[in-house]
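Objective 1.3, modelling of assemblies. Example input:
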Amino acid sequence: MKLIKRISVICSVITFCHINTVSANINVFTCEPEWQALAQELGGDKVTTFSATTGMQDPHQVQARPSLITKMRNADLLICSGADLEVGWLPVLLRRASNSKISVNKPGYFFAANHVKLLGAPKIIDRSQGDVHAAGNPHVQTNPKNIALIAKALVKRMKTIDPNNAAYYQNKTDNFLARWKQAMRKWKKQVRALKGSRFIVQHASWDYLMDFGKFEQVATIEEKPGIPPTSGHLADLVNQFKNNPADIIIHAGYQDERASKWLSKRSGIPTVTLPFTIGGNDKATDLFSLYNDTFAILTNTLKSKG
Amino acid sequence: MKLNKNTLLLTSFLVALASTPVVASEQKKESSLNKLKYELQQLKQEYKNKIAELEARLNDAEDSNDETLETVEQLSIDVSQQGNQKAANTFNPGIGVILNGRYVNYNDHFDYNLPGFFLGDEVGPGDQGLQIGESELNMSANVDDKFFASSTIAFGDGEVSVEEAFLQTINLGNGFKIKAGKFFSDIGYLANKHTHTDDFANRPLPYEAFLGGQFGDTGVQTTWLAPTELYWESGVELYRGDSFPAAGAGNSGLGVWTAFSHIGGDIGNSQSWRAGLSYLHAEVNDRENDLGNTFTGTSKLSIADFIYKWSPNGNRANQELKIQGEYLSRNEQGIFSDINLANASLDRNQDGWYLEGVYRFARQWRVGLRTSKLSSDNLPTQFNGSFLDGLNHSPKQHSLMLDWSNSEFSRIRLQVDNNNLNGEQNNVWILQYIAAFGAHGAHSF
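Predicted structure (tokens):
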């Protein structure tokens, strides 16, 4: 401890490295911005939050860069999607940060995917099928219903980590869930009108959205997850949808839109960029606006199509 | 007048008689209309209330239905989680295999040597033709709640060796970590990287000359990650001292010690960097090369390293620029012997650097350029003509590579090295494949 103090003195002299003086009660490290937003909703001013990725970054592709090691070292609570989404970088970060508060099975170790029903678990686990996630599809945030389930599980952890503010967290959560319920009614009404729409998706990241809207996913542009689309597959898609076109092509804000645009041009099927997570476009600034914008885009595109 | 009065009366009576029913009937009409309107209003209100009530009931029903579904789902999740954990156990320990094969071509007269440098064993491009390269098998897992362990076995053609086999603490807290066993050193940038993660098919000249490609040995390491906003990690290591540049496990089997410190961080969302200083001190006991030359003494190596990465919005998938460089400076003092010189006292400074840039210009494609150079100070005249005489050559190498990765797990690379090691220009062509299967590899920075 003495050493740490001494170094912090040295550090405060060198102005560029100021010691992380945490004024909030829980220091939250999240892997994706949707969990940062959720932690903020439930924790209010009792938490400081950080997200390792932005809405413009592919969460599969992150590296264990120095800033993340430091952020994780100082965290009290880790919130990630789980289900192997972060398998390339989270285990390295955990080892490098060596933070006992967020090690496996501690209250500070929280995986969202463990609290919802996972869809799309592959029948064959073989990488010839692409970068498959053995436990199931990790992109659980594309169904707003999952957010409520995860919120209920998350608040329990926050109360365990910071019991003095348990009532505060519960209160914030109840308030959030009430507003969420209201919003869910609106979103449900919106998707009910679009039920059965046929979707082509860029990457298999939308299983939970398909489930929520009772949409039909008729094709993926990335034939195999993690492997870029081939021109042969794209040509097949054009033929496949020549006589029976799908209703819409969707991709996330961080994905390369060239393949979607190409297919759209050839097939006449409209293509849209959905935010996918917070920061995925300018309008998606919190959890509510994320889905407001997602369903507004879908409604506008699918209805104008008639 | 009377008549008039009567007439008037009569008229007014008649008028009254005629007009009363009209007025009365109009009044009647109006009131029934109002009544209708009123009733309609009432009905409307009633329906409105009823509709609102029905809507509320529908919402409630939906909510309670949702809640029931959620409860059922929660239960099924609780049950399925147990299944998930079982599934995760099938990957415990994580077992990963890296295959690395290559085809090498150069002029038959080309001889890889770095004049003036006393080299370790495994340097240079190897034999011409098809090679199995160095493939490896890695197994790693958390041992318990306190330790992580990893072992990497390297296998080439007819050769099997332990690259790494170590135990590391996982939650000492306060940023401390301790590692023990055989492992790659954390000095510099490239030293602790396994070569299959490199951006080029071989190591730059200063790594070949001063560390024999990389430095790993049996040892212990402790590192400390400061609680600062800026990344700042420092550590010290103690090694047995069997590996180049050390030899003979000097100092009673504690022949090498190192110290290093690295800082790093992000600049906005798009850029990240790391820089550091390292030092390695090796006792050398009778280091011998295959020409029969020997050296005994101390070898002191200082390294300054930096790496910088940029990608648009920090999204590495389709575009990324990486610039990396290291400067290595070495002093060796001790006794040197070769065929002509016996026990000559030596004090020599040599240094070298490399600088590389790698650019991902499409999701699967990267191109890279690297330059490395070595130089030595002047030798005392008694060493003229000896093995250590560099004949005023400063070995230089320029490398150009292009690689294609079908997925994260496979890569094919073409590289050409333009060597000017001893005054002669030579090109070395390398075609390489790297494939990873099993446990998902780590995305190290």
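The first strand of chain B starts at residue 94 and ends at 106.
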